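Suppose a classmate hands you a notebook page containing two proteins, each written out with its sequence and a corresponding row of structure tokens. How would you begin to make sense of it? This section walks through that situation. The first entry is reproduced here exactly as it would appear on such a page.
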Amino acid sequence: MSDNTLEQRCLDFERINYYFGKMMLVRDFQDQQRYYNEKRWMVNRFGLGWGVLAGLRVAPHPRGGLRVLVEPGFALDQYGHEIWVCKAQTLELETADQSTPEQRCVYIYLRYRECLSEAAPVPAEECGELTSGCNYNRTRETFDLFASAEPPEGIEPFDHPVNGLSDCELECHQFLANPVRLLNQGCPPRNPCLAIPLAKICYDPGDPQGKIAVDNIICRKIAGSNELLYELIACLTRELWTLHAARTDRRQFVPLLVQSIKGLHYRDGRIRSHELPILQPCRLAGDGRDIWITDKSPLTDESFPNGHVVRLHQDGTRKLIGLDESAWGIAFDGHYMWITHPESENGNEENTPGIQLTRIDVCKDDIQTPYSLSQLKPYPQEILCTDEFLFVLHRWDSDENALYLSLIDPVSLKDPENGYGIIDLQINKTKQQNPVGDTGETELLQKVVMVYDGEAIWVAYAFKGEQDSRLPRACLAKVRIRQIPGSPPEMQLEVEKHLVLKSRVPEDLSFDGSHVWITHDEGVTRVDASSKNELIHRDNSSSGPQSALTFDGQFVWSAQNRELRWSAQKDKFETMLSRIDTLTLAVEEGEEIRVLIDAPNTPPGFREVGNLEVSQMFFDGAHIWIAATGEYDDEFGNQPAGIIHRILA
């Protein structure tokens, strides 16, 4: 058994030197075991730290009662002892007199313990007589599992300085870039072997049902493996340097527009425009490396007559990926890129739906999986991905004049025989359930957008009511997933709140971590968790409405469209970008920027631009991407026009 009260001094390691004829004593065998154990424990202490390495999750016991179940797992204590729990363990919690019930909280601990086992007789000689004694053949390395009301010691939150060295002089990004200062420090003192905290348990001893609340996060000590920690550090380094560069440069060099804002200047004064084979860029998405762009219009040549997406690589090269249908919405789930096809209907004469969704493997973009789902509503437009589900927004132009939100379980798409796990909900309330009290028919307008706030889906749309048909009304619906008890439990979507905004037509939505932002004809509005909305930025100009919206980690950016006519020399379109500091709500408006849109293959002459606007903005961690679409007239009629811009945030 190791001694936890060893003197805090440096001891040289000595191992047994074997030679022929050497007489081995008990001390020699004990020293040999101690040598290997101490070296292994030292590597554990300095290389892995202490805490849970795998498993050991604590949960209420499946049979109920005031007891918990600790799942199998592996941990290291502060001395480096390995604690292996090979099977689930049941731990009884303390009961109390039910006449004085009160909620109590305890902490579950795991502690290393050694015990002797396998007793065997040992011959011994006392005063010339041979007698028999007893000793043990094995030392079993086991553990103690117990509950205590004492909170754990030595467990600091994640924002606590590393070993007390990461103070104001040593910022986190400096440590990640150069950890030599920490590694060059002397060996830290050997701490006493504390029990390893696993979870915090709160319960009412007098509760006859024995309800138990388990928290496996707040006090659990984690000891990540080297591979896991390396990946985490690499990820944090990339993310932190991106945010650090944006944070430190934002107030000194604001690369917002070609001109200056309020006397500030820009890093390089350039906006990079990508000349892509895109006629009408619609939606943007990123996979962490490349930018994906959907095109509403098929190419004029015969290479991709039905539809396509463009994959733009970091080096500026691109790849066109043909699709079976025209594309609209696009979203990334961490492995696949999902694309919606808005022209698909719910069925034809054979009651067979068209292709509604396409899934593309970003690692192998030549592998596509189209989906024709009979249970899915027609005309899918917008799409977004959460950790578990796909959400698709449908605008149905038929007699229903309805707006639907569909939830799709991607796992169920692999097993169509058991159904596709699709749940849908009509968002816009008609007839007696109209959100503004109009009991007549409503006309749903074209623009519909949505955003995910981590818990709920926010959907913005506009409609005209029968009793107020002169002006449209903008609505914002908050939709949640509700669990229905059963075996197995079911899910359904429900509208938790319906807000009617003072504006007329919503344009785009974004989420900054605590508030939902919406652009519309009057400016930009912020909505908090309690559904209180306030107009942050009012547009007093006579130009077009605020359109696309995105969030870069500190600022919300919005675009305002400016329609111009083609000049005799250059074809021009003007827009203006504004940004709002989400902490101070300060608004910085840029001067008008002139985004040059060269009409392809068009002879000089007079032409007119119609509705050339920013359709979407997307932030990839370093740059803001802008998709602008529109039309121009030539001798053949209306022709699509579009361009992609990239600016440094």
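The notebook's second entry, a different protein, reads as follows.
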Amino acid sequence: MAERIGRAWRRYSTVRIFRYYRDLIRFRERGDPAVLLRAVNPREANLSDAACGVHVRFRLGGATFPPLIFYKIYTHRPVADVCAFSPRDYVTAALARKSARRQVRHVRGAGGDRSPAGLGQTVRDDSYEGWYKRIENNGWRPVSQRVLVDVDEVTARTAAKAYTFHFDPGVRREDKIKAQKQKQREWMAKMYADKGTDKGGTGGAGGAGGGG
């Protein structure tokens, strides 16, 4: 009986803490982004103005409870990614062509008019090795000054996440939809797995009680 009361009290306290942080985030998201940034990160607040269309989002996270409040800066204005216009590694391609020309000159110089096999054929490189990958460097950062001293795990992971940035907007949209569906499938699988574990644990406890 005492264990049940303890679990109920811990559950009640946990829910109260979660609701407090949730309501705090909802209240903050209704405010002016510039004012929020001045309170959270004054250095970046000086870089934004009304024309930037800045939007600040908050979320709860962290490895321990009570959770930490993280924020991330978004913009509603178009952002031009200059590297996306030329995603290929042109330096490596130029070096490869230069090496091929040297090989042709070497073969011709050694054997007269002889040419290497496949010289007149068109070679197409379907490899994306060395192509541009976008790194946002705009991860979820903690609001609390206490954890800003050290690099937080969530901040490092979300900021250093790199993904392939295709030059075709249609392909980017398809990849985004596929990633969302895959994430939803993983979430559903995890939810059903946790539900099955809970049922198994409850059944074991009930069987033990019935045997007593």
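A careful reader of the second entry would note: Residues 181 and 187 are 10 Å apart (CA to CA).
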